[in-house]
Amino acid sequence: MAYLAPKFSFTPSPICPPSCKTSISLHSSAFRIRKLHSHQFLVSDQVNVGGDSGNGVREMERPALKQVRASPKLSEAEKLAISQLPPKMTNRCKALMKQIICFSAENGSVPRMLAAWVRSTKPQRADWLAVLKELERLNHFLYFEIAEYAFTEESFEANIRDYTKIIHGYAKQDKLGEAERTLEAMKSRGLMCDQVTLTALVHMYSKAGNLKMAEDTFEEMRLLGVLLDKRSYGSIVMAYIRAGNLTSAESSLREMEARQIYAPREVYKALLRAYSMLGDSLGSQRVFDAIQVAGIIPDTKVCGLLINAYVASGKTCEARIAFENMRKSDLEPNDKCTALVLAAYEKENRLKEALDLLIELERDNVMLGKESSSLLVQWFRRLGVVEEVEHVLKDFASMMHEPVCSSLSRLPTPY
């Protein structure tokens, strides 16, 4: 009689006891437990149920992602960086951050590491942003590379502001090529430049000294009809100043004022300094007036630039008037301002006016600094009247019943 093999059914018998339902042998080699070697350790062996991730999705990291090499080779700096990761950071983000901190180009690649993390944890935009925020805080060298990779992932949902931030970051580091590459990547995804992005580009080209591209970008902003604010105008004004085109810079400032938009103090100060260094007293005075129209109170450095412009152009009287106006505004002159006025007097050999100024400063308890003192010593030595001037000042001070004027006695003797 032929032997018939019994048929196997996956449906348990209703009378089968519970122990019969799991009759697969646990001694099968397929279920053998693998022992980890001593040179491997688990980055995170915790299960995070919602909690710090902001949702109720159960997070569990796969062993392939959690194994990190090199416990023996972990530096003290890496250990410290890992220990200082934000406590509220999700486990999936911590797993990636630990790999990034311990990353070495000799043992792997960034794209492969990120691809494995994406496959294992299915990150959301919030996870990407948390990682990038921490990398930015650490000023990590992989920040830009990881950001650019994240932009290619659908889970990141990159928008124009994300690209603008990276472009601005590259611009701050003078990496013009990388910034332009990021701009092209943004445009290839169908994202159009807005006012913030274009302003960042104008600033970038201005800083790089590329006036042509700065002008073209600014003109594009006009054609698109985007809002031009003080940052936009300030960027193009600085581009003109760096290129030495002060007329166009001043023209842009007047256009701003007509729209009741005023540039930051640094922009006005940069234009004033440019005019001052050229000895253009008229241009310096115009910018100085514009500063006050913009509601900016001139400080000692701004006044010093105006005084320098008058001194450089040979207008000693105007320089002294600017100096006195500064003092009347309760601004104590610094050593540079005092030295400028004394230098103007020396050029015209007006010793009496210089002595009058010294007495006024002494009366107001204004101490002479190194630059002013050195200038006076050299001037009086050339005249051969160092001791005579000191005696005259002492006699004058005693007549006024004031403390002995010791400005000149404190002057350093040059070698």
Q: How much of the sequence is in beta strands? A: under 5%
**Mean of the pLDDT scores?**
81
Low-confidence stretches: 1-72, 400-415
Helix content: 55-70%
- Order of secondary-structure elements: EEEHEHHHHHHHHHHHHHHHHHHH
Number of strands: 4
Verbal overview:
Residues 174-280 form the PROP1-like PPR domain. It comes from Salvia divinorum (Maria pastora). This is Pentatricopeptide repeat-containing protein. InterPro entries: PPR_rpt, PROP1-like_PPR_dom, TPR-like_helical_dom_sf. This protein is mostly helical and 415 residues long. It has four domains: 47-158, no CATH class; 200-259, no CATH class; 264-331, no CATH class; 334-415, no CATH class. It has helices at residues 63-66, 76-83, 91-101, 110-121, 125-138, 143-151, 160-172, 176-188, 195-207, 211-224, 230-242, 246-258, 265-277, 281-293, 300-312, 316-328, 335-347, 351-363, 370-383, 386-399, and strands at 40-42, 48-49, 58-59, 67-69. The strands form two sheets. A two-stranded antiparallel sheet has the order 1-4. Strand 2 and strand 3 form a beta hairpin. It starts with 39 loop residues before the first strand and ends in a 16-residue tail after the last helix. Residues 1-72 and 400-415 have low confidence and may be disordered.
